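Lab meeting, item 3. Inverse folding demo.
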């Protein structure tokens, strides 16, 4: 009998995409829909990026490129790393991929054999679970509930990472919660990690330039440089440079890991396309003020979203300090009714919110936290307040 591989029974399409598709279909059918669902930035890269692409088209070699990434790209990424507080890396410490998602997938293939344990906090970015399941890893979740501000505590980390753990995966700032760890919090976790010498550490910090309130960006390696020998920093142009569709991701870490990811590239993708590389070089080496300007706008939006959600009786929302997400706890509404419908859980809540108020949010269970939902607040500015008012009206109608 013809059969797909067993691993495909563990592979699911993205829950976020499913909601985004449903919202799109309703919109196409003429419904007035406000989408807080998909996590995409609301800005494009500066004109220098498009200029670089036009020039690259004129000189396109049409040839295969380097599996690791072009030297020019690696060099500008090295500078970018220095600006993010990382030093001591050379090109051999780096590799690239078709977005951070692909880099994370390659890292899972490179570091985890079937049955190996990967540990990460919940709420988690949806694809962590899917990638782990596809490669057949065993997942250990470290629950960080809303009452804990969605943040991991050092004692919890210490207790969770055992002899069976191969990889600890950490995301800061967080998608879906928007939480950002302070220097002291990162230092306390780093203290634990130095005592776990046999565990690889992946830090998915693709939102590291989107931090508000002067908290700054901190990585374990900044505080404990010895952790660089087993820490892999993952970055991407998708969010901070407004380039999600260009699909450029990076890693910086031990040479053995960078070489492994490069070997996987040679078998998966061969190379990032020349035109995309030109765009990435221009983005990383050109004016860097787009993200900073955007953060001013996101901070104002965060303030509005946080204030509006906090004003809804029954909703509680730890205050986000980075990225462009809020993750309110809506569990107080479970069991309430809207007409004949019982709001049994986050999935029903989000489906009813979309149906009755035309607002698309992602159920928290997509991120391993079924008490919450995710709001991505990068919608057109004129939709933000109406969207928030509709959520309040929806909650008020539940009895
Ligand atoms: N990591 C996190 C935490 C994300 O939120 C995302 C995208 O939403 C990614 C990785 C993947 O980013 P990319 O577009 O570079 O694949």
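The presenter then showed the designed sequence:
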């Amino acid at each position: 009998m013809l059969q797909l591989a067993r691993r495909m029974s563990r592979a699911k399409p993205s829950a976020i995409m499913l909601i985004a598709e449903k919202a799109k279909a309703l919109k196409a059918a003429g419904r007035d829909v406000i989408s807080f669902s998909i996590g995409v930035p609301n800005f494009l890269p500066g004109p220098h990026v498009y200029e670089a692409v036009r020039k690259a088209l004129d000189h396109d070699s049409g040839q295969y490129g380097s599996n690791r990434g072009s030297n020019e790209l690696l060099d500008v990424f090295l500078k970018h790393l220095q600006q993010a507080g990382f030093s001591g890396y050379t090109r051999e410490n780096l590799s690239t991929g078709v977005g951070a998602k692909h880099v994370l997938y390659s890292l899972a293939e490179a570091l985890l054999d079937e049955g190996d344990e990967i540990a990460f906090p919940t709420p988690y970015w949806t694809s962590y679970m899917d990638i782990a399941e596809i490669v057949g890893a065993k997942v250990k979740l470290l629950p960080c509930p809303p009452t804990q501000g969605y943040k991991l505590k050092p004692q919890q980390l210490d207790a969770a990472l055992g002899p069976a753990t191969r990889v600890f995966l950490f995301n800061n700032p967080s998608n879906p919660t928007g939480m950002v760890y302070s220097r002291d919090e990162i230092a306390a976790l780093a203290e634990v990690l130095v005592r776990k010498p046999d565990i690889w550490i992946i830090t998915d910090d693709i939102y590291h330039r989107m931090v508000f309130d002067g908290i700054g960006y901190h990585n374990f390696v900044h505080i404990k440089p010895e952790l660089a020998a087993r820490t892999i920093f993952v970055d991407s142009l998708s969010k901070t440079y407004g380039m999600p569709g260009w699909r450029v991701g990076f890693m910086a870490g031990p040479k053995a890991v960078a070489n492994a990811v490069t070997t996987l590239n040679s078998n998966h993708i061969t190379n990032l396309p020349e035109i995309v590389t030109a765009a990435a070089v221009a983005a990383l080496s050109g004016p860097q003020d787009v993200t900073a300007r955007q953060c001013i706008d996101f901070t104002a939006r965060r303030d509005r979203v946080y204030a509006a959600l906090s004003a809804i009786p029954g909703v509680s929302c730890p205050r986000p300090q980075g990225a462009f997400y809020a993750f309110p706890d809506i569990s107080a509404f479970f069991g309430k009714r809207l007409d004949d419908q019982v709001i049994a859980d986050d999935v029903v809540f989000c489906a009813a919110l979309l149906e009755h108020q035309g607002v698309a949010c992602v159920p928290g269970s997509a991120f391993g936290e079924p008490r919450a939902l995710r709001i991505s607040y990068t919608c057109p500015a004129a939709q933000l307040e109406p969207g928030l008012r509709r959520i309040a009206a929806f909650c008020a109608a539940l009895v």
